[in-house]
TrEMBL record:
PROSITE patterns: ABC_TRANSPORTER_1 (PS00211)
Family matches, as InterPro entries: AAA+_ATPase (IPR003593), ABC_transp_ATP-bind (IPR050319), ABC_transporter-like_ATP-bd (IPR003439), ABC_transporter-like_CS (IPR017871), P-loop_NTPase (IPR027417)
Record lineage: Bacteria, Pseudomonadati, Pseudomonadota, Gammaproteobacteria, Thiotrichales
Listed GO MF terms: ATP binding; ATP hydrolysis activity
Domain AAA+ ATPase: 71-171
Keywords: ATP-binding, Nucleotide-binding, Transport
Protein name per its UniProtKB record: Peptide ABC transporter, ATP-binding protein
Entry's Gene Ontology BP terms: transmembrane transport
Length: 212
C-alpha cells in the first residue's frame, strides 16, 4: 500500500505534507527546549472504608518523570491503559495539580498563578481524547471554535473571526454550513475534527493530543 497505493485517496494522503504553522518563536538549531518537565509527580489519595476502620493508600499516577520537547519535534508517549499518559499531559499543561518543574519557552509554568497563566494558554493547546465530553452541547460549532479567538484576539471583529473559523473548518474537512450546528448533530470523528480546529486556530507553539 505504501509503495504502490492504488486508491486516489490513499495516494493523496501519502503525498500530503502539512505546512508548519508560522509563529514568532525562534526555531533555530540552538533553541532551548520548548517544553521541559523535571521530576513531575502526581499522586492521588485513595480511601477505602472497611468495618470499623478506613484504609488510606496512594496511587502514583505519574512518578518522577523527566521530559524535553524541542521546537519542531514530535514526541509520542506510549503505554497501556491506566499507565498515566493522559495525566502526564494534563500535568505538563497545568491542567492537573502536580509537583516538579514545568518550563515552557524559558518560562516557569509551575510557579505562575492562574491569572498569569491564562494569556500563555493560547501558545499550548490540547485536543482531549473524548470528543463527546470535550465539546459544550449548548454551543454551536462557530461558538466552540471562536471562543479562543474572542479571548486571545479581542481585536478581531465578528467578520474576521468568522473568516478564520471558516478557513480552519475547511482545513479539517468540514463545511461552512456546519457553523450553526450543535455537537449532537455530528459523528464522533467529526466532533474530534471540531476539537482539532478549536486548538489549531490559535496557532499554538505546542499542540498536545491526548489519545486512548
Amino acid at each position: 500500500m505504501f509503495k504502490q497505493p492504488e486508491q486516489p485517496y490513499t495516494q493523496h494522503l501519502l503525498n500530503s505534507q502539512p505546512e508548519r504553522i508560522q509563529t514568532d518563536y525562534d526555531y533555530s538549531a540552538e533553541s532551548p527546549p520548548l517544553l521541559e518537565g523535571k521530576q513531575i509527580r502526581c499522586y492521588f489519595t485513595l480511601k477505602q472504608k472497611q468495618f470499623l476502620k478506613r484504609n488510606v493508600s496512594e496511587l502514583k499516577a505519574v512518578d518522577d518523570v523527566n521530559l524535553q520537547l524541542f521546537p519542531g519535534e514530535t514526541v509520542g508517549i506510549v503505554g497501556e491503559s491506566g499507565s498515566g499518559k493522559t495525566t502526564l499531559g494534563l500535568c505538563l499543561l497545568r491542567l492537573q495539580n502536580c509537583t516538579g518543574l514545568i518550563q515552557f519557552a524559558n518560562q516557569r509554568l509551575d510557579q505562575l498563578p492562574p491569572r498569569q497563566l491564562r494569556p500563555l494558554r493560547r501558545h499550548f493547546q490540547v485536543v482531549f481524547q473524548d470528543p463527546y465530553s470535550s465539546l459544550s452541547p449548548r454551543q454551536t460549532v462557530e461558538q466552540i471554535i471562536g471562543e479562543g479567538l474572542e479571548i486571545h484576539f479581542p481585536e478581531l471583529n465578528r467578520y474576521k473571526r468568522r473568516k478564520r473559523i471558516v478557513s480552519i473548518l475547511n482545513e479539517v474537512g468540514l463545511e461552512k454550513n456546519m457553523l450553526w450546528r450543535y455537537p449532537y448533530q455530528f459523528s464522533g470523528g467529526q466532533r474530534q475534527r471540531i476539537a482539532i480546529a478549536r486548538a489549531v486556530i490559535l496557532e499554538p507553539q505546542l499542540l498536545a493530543i491526548l489519545s486512548y
